[in-house]
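Lab notebook page, bench 4
Experiment: in silico fold of construct C2
Operator: M.H.
Input chain length: 123 residues
Purpose: comparison with the prior construct
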Amino acid sequence: MFKIIWLLKRKDGVSFEQFRDHYENSHSVLGRKYFGHLMLGYRRNYNLAHQAGGHASAAGMRLSEYDCIAEWELRDEEAFGEFKRIFADKEISRIFLDDEEHFLDSQSTRLVICDTQDTGTAD
């Protein structure tokens, strides 16, 4: 499986709830509209440390500063190439960049291209 992971932070002045609401009701909708045909899966994993009271770090580990980790499961590397081709269209990229202005700290966004290995679960 070919997977893309996006590490995302909210823009200054945007609450975690506003960030999540905008991502779910606008940005992810755009993602499905323009790239959904390339995806086998599209998950958004929200950092629970931002909920009321937060969560204590486990075993002394530092909590992530990212608000969301988004995962795209793609059929293969060619699908990622098609994503890049579509996003290179100036009109389409402008739609996404304009939407990001409402909630996302784009300078902090990180992209991780993964070769996923699954060892399964214990029996």
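Observations: Residues 2-49+66-115 form a domain with the Alpha-Beta Plaits fold (CATH 3.30.70.100). The longest strand covers residues 39-46.
Next step: discuss at group meeting.
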